[in-house]
Design goal:
Among the domains are: 80 residues, Ribosomal Protein L9, domain 1 (3-Layer(aba) Sandwich), CATH 3.40.5; 97 residues, no CATH class. It is α+β, with helices and mostly antiparallel strands. Helix 7 packs antiparallel against helix 10. It has a four-stranded antiparallel beta sheet, with no helix packed on it. Strands 6-8-7-12 form a four-stranded antiparallel beta sheet. The chain has a three-stranded antiparallel beta sheet with strand order 16-13-17. 38% of the residues lie in helices and 20% in strands. The structure holds zinc ion (ZN).
Length: 383
């Protein structure tokens, strides 16, 4: 019987993984831009155990990796004059990339904690919405300054690096991430009750020229009114009476909505507010805001390996994102070379296009990518 516990990797497996990781970096180390101005952090068991490391060149970074064999490599979003100095106050930052971190955290039936295709697809869709709707759309960042990478485990990271972003304050970064998550959106500023005196008022709201969140709710409401589809309106929670109201006053409403007058047909104020709320739920993107505003944080180095999976934190183009499949495209090792393994626990998952359902105590020859994943997840040992 093996004496390996569920929490540690035994020396034999550790040596195997270290050799694999070192071999990957010998061939595939991609040093980040302005490497010498970044702080580095490394982890062996946990993600970051050592930080405040600084390298003058890619050669220095490679030497360190070959000597120490870290399982996690992170770098600072911030650029420093003295990246290796401690405490933090002595580093002298002069700007930072803006980073959005999306992690899969969805509750659903049949979630697979080992490797969940459903969750991976969902977080990829959210990342795509973040890039298209917010970063390129509402914020107007330029494509060439965005870079997208898989996190190596469950999520995605988007880095924005241009002159306008580098100098953003922590507060400004907070506002940007709040905007994306719709945290700070004030409904009373999207729809405003304008007092006309003598107890009369109009409800002013988004117009055909509105952009951002206002533009989103405008498009949703106008579409709903224009199509006049009863089923669709019912799904949005409208009552029979409200639906009839809309159908009878369709043309008048469209005309007024386009000009920002949302009160032309009375009695629908709550409908518009509810619609805004649902738009916020549906369109907001679940980013980890701390990653965006905390400028001293370290983030996984793109193209490095993730120690909990052995997957590459792979960089991809915007065109590649919608169909990116980490279980095929983030694999670092051989698809064909076989390794004899013994399972410590049962595991079921899909990798490199094949389904695996492995039983406890089962012994099997498995492709290297599968072996590395199982070892990183502490589910198996080498035989
Ligand atoms: Zn899942």
């Amino acid at each position: 019987m093996s004496s390996v516990t569920a929490l540690t990797i035994a020396p034999k497996e550790m040596d195997y993984l270290r050799a694999k990781f070192r071999g990957y970096y010998r061939e595939h180390l991609v040093p980040p831009r302005l490497l010498h101005e970044r702080e580095f952090g490394f982890g062996f068991e946990r993600k970051i155990e050592y930080r405040h490391k600084q390298f003058e060149s890619a050669h220095g970074l490679q030497e360190f990796i070959q000597r120490e064999s870290p399982f996690f490599i992170s770098y600072s979003a911030a650029y420093y004059r003295y990246p290796g100095a401690t405490p933090m106050g002595k580093k002298e930052p002069h700007g930072a990339e803006l980073i959005f971190d999306l992690d899969a955290g969805y509750e659903h039936e049949n979630h697979n904690p080992m490797l969940c295709t459903h969750c991976l697809n969902k977080v990829r869709e959210e990342t795509h919405a973040l890039v298209e709707d917010y970063l390129l759309g509402d914020f107007g960042f330029s494509k060439k300054n965005l870079s997208i990478n898989f996190s190596g485990q469950k999520g995605y990271h988007v880095h924005v690096d241009d002159d306008s972003v580098r100098s953003l304050s922590q507060e400004a970064r907070k506002q940007l991430s709040n905007y994306v998550t719709a945290q700070s959106l004030d409904m009373d500023r999207v729809f405003v009750k304008q007092d006309l005196g003598s107890r009369k008022y109009v409800l002013r709201g988004p117009t055909s020229a509105s952009r951002g969140w206002s533009g989103r709710v405008y498009a949703k409401a106008r579409g709903l009114v224009e199509r006049g589809n009863e089923e669709e309106m019912k799904k949005e929670g409208l009552s029979k009476k409200q639906i009839n109201f809309i159908k009878e006053n369709q043309a008048l409403m469209i005309q007024n909505i386009d000009r920002g007058n949302w009160g032309a047909v009375k009695g629908l104020e709550t409908v518009w507010r509810d619609l805004l709320q649902r738009t916020m739920q549906l369109k907001s993107v679940n980013v980890d805001e701390r990653v965006s505003y905390d400028m001293v944080r370290l983030i996984r180095m793109p193209q490095s390996l993730h120690g909990d999976t052995g997957f590459i934190a792979k960089t991809m183009s915007q065109q590649e994102l919608p169909t990116f499949d980490p279980t095929k495209e983030a694999l670092a090792f051989s698809r064909t070379a076989r390794v004899r393994m013994k399972m410590k626990e049962a595991a079921a998952f899909e990798l490199q296009g094949e389904s695996y359902a492995l039983k406890k105590e089962e012994e099997k020859e498995l492709p290297e990518n599968v072996a590395v994943l199982l070892l990183c997840k502490k589910k198996a040992i080498l035989v």
